[in-house]
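MODEL INPUT / OUTPUT PAIR
PAIR INDEX: 1
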Amino acid sequence: MVPGLALVAGGLLAGCRGLPVAGEKAARQEVAEVGRQLPEQLPELATNATLADCVRFAVRNHPQVRAAYADWAASVENITVARSLPDPKLTFELYAADAVSSLMPGLSADLPGPGKLAARGAAASAESRARYFQFESAALQTALAVEKSYYPLRFLDARLAVNRQMQALLGSLETLARAQNEVGRATLQDVLRAQIEQDKLRTETADLEDSRQVLLADFKAALGLTAEQADPPVPVLAPFTEGGPGDEALFALALKQNPRLKELAAEIRVAEASLRMARKERTPDFSAGLEVDAKAAPAVWNPQFGMTLPVWRDKLAAEIAAARAGERAARARLTAEQVGLAADFAEQAYLIREAGRELTLLRDRLLPRARQALEISRAAYRSGQADFLNVIDAERSLLDFQTDEIAAQTQRAVARAELTLLIVGTPPPGVPLPTNEKTGPRH
């Protein structure tokens, strides 16, 4: 190979770098920042772990989040692929009859038309933004799954505690019925009724205890733990914090930072970039090369030049029309998601308010009155002024109200988690998201 071509080939083999497009460097920094927060091995949850600790653990550990992160990282790498020039080609040609008469090594390169590489890079960059918001959605969905599996488990424990208290109460009622029977103020039927109620409550408690294993398995799966790993600790229930922004302010925040809306907005930018790419297809691509006849003296240099001819107008028109249709579809999907978001927001906000009213009614009025009614009926039965069925009815009413209180607590906690995480899109503290994404999206 002649010295000039050898020098060029050596430079190519040593490696070249293209020019990054806007946002490529920042995207790589974000991927690296999040990657440092996703270690391969996480320490086990401490026995005194809080719910917030469990959420942070799940977001770092769950395979769904790791898969979304890998997809995002791959899309960032694809920016470099999309905006890079095609690889140059080394060529070799010779003419030989009885002897080699001509030996021509060469070098050629394809050169996309003006603006094509930039358009491809912009489309890949927009696609990486959409993949990022999918990763953010996966993180928030994982956090929500932890809370949605935690609250039923924690409130099941509260229900079991209530049942055990009622078991003790029924035991005391049976003792009271026996005492009344011994002095002739009641029949043995009252003792049997008390025993029947206890048997029913024991069976219900056994069913609840059995169902705890199912709920614990759901909680374990939400944390991304496999069946072979140890069962996680169940955190102590934190007190419910009232207050916060009103519905109008929260909905405005949801429209601003909901990750699904941001993903669809990014898909619009992908569609816009695809439209620019389609329009660029009307521009010819070029190729250039150089060969040298190393056998000639002096050496003969043969420059080469080529150009594509974009003559298939129907094909070009179809590409542009398809890109325009894709853009319209992306905008329609964003509008549809905004409509659905408003409905979902209204539903979850209503469930929170409904549960709050139910808890106020139960705690301020119904539960105190039910306890008072039970004490009155017990005293009346003891003095022979009331039937034992009145005592049982009062006991059932108290149990029903206590169960309703637990159900309302569960509804309120789960609805608030869904509203905060999935609809408003507020990330829990400490989850692995890029720093600038916590304050606003990068464009």
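PAIR INDEX: 2
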Amino acid sequence: MNYEESIKWLYSFEKFGIKLGLERINYICKKLKNPQKSYKIIHVGGSNGKGSVCRFLQTILTLSGYKTGVFTSPHLQRFSERFVIDGKEISKDDVVLIVKKIKPIIDEMIKQKNSPTFFEIVTAIAFEYFKDQKVDFAIIEVGLGGRFDSTNVVDPLVSVITNVSLEHQDRLGNKVEDIAFEKAGIIKESIPVITGASGKSIDVIKKVAKEKKSQIKIVEKSSWEKIQGGPDWQEFLVKGSLKDYHLKSSMAGKIQGENIAITIATIENLQMNGVYITDESILDGVEKTIYPGRMEIISFEPLILIDGAHNIEGINNLKSTLKEDFVYEKLIIILGILKDKNIKEMLDIITPLADVIIFTKSKNKRACSPTKLKDMIEKEVIVKEKISDAIDYAKMQAEKQDLICITGSLFTVGETKDYLQKS
């Protein structure tokens, strides 16, 4: 199999959808001799910010001299984005090598009428790749939920739950307490947990942590503050358990303060448990971390901001960022949302800010029709079936001092980057 054939084979498993449960991933890992036990792991779950926390952690650990892998999902433009070691994506040759190793196991499962899902196979690839590359640390991001997510076969040094908000109610439950219970499923017996959760969700997480005899560190809103900043830079003061940290970040959005504070709490936990990490690595790591597709400025004059906000909390954070960090004459918003999201609530939050609203859709089969989006609000909107047409229209409407914001889905953002890089 070559790379294209390997990717085609992997994506053939998308037809099996999402099947929560650990039986299949445990079977694959056992056949691979449990590669996930070959290195130290930080397991990161939560509703929003977990990808950013993963990236901050990876940069800090890499700068401290540790070979560090990070597994995140979904990818924006390339499949290889999911598997990164010290900032470098997996090679095509390594993808082919691991697919060849895993395929006989999957073929056997298919014969037993127990086919794994796409994400289960991809998770196994991450575990095996990090073992082959002999990483010191692997930072593993939860795919969906936590308790029955296929990443939840790891034995981490520390578990992280960034926050909890309403999402994936069809699978995780209709109440924030139900979702918190699923997220808390990554808490392991006597393994510390770091969380920025609050409200009803923190009560659930504290209860599970107590049952598991796990020490819990709650990152309060009062533990960090934004000092100053602009569209493409920010300064924060984070009050850690060991000391205070004055940090700079090139990532937009005040919410990064919370993500950085959670990262600091996690790093301090590692330090207190014997992992050598320098203050210089922490400061430089935060400043050097970038995360494509999340509050990312990709053009000036006009300013073009892309953000993969895909749930209520994410859209609220984007709204705050647009109001607090950006100055513009006219705001043009391009929205493409998946049909299984809280669409009406998301639209009600973000559309009142816009001077021009353009509805579009990604090529993802879960994408909501832009015509349906139009029917959900009373404001005048523009409908463009293709993201490329939506972008072209927005650029024609925009003056130098205007802001174009493209959001609603990571798939929308990924296709935006593809188009703008080619044009």
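PAIR 2 NOTE: Residues 3-288 form a domain with the UDP-N-acetylmuramoyl-L-alanine:D-glutamate ligase fold (CATH 3.40.1190.10).
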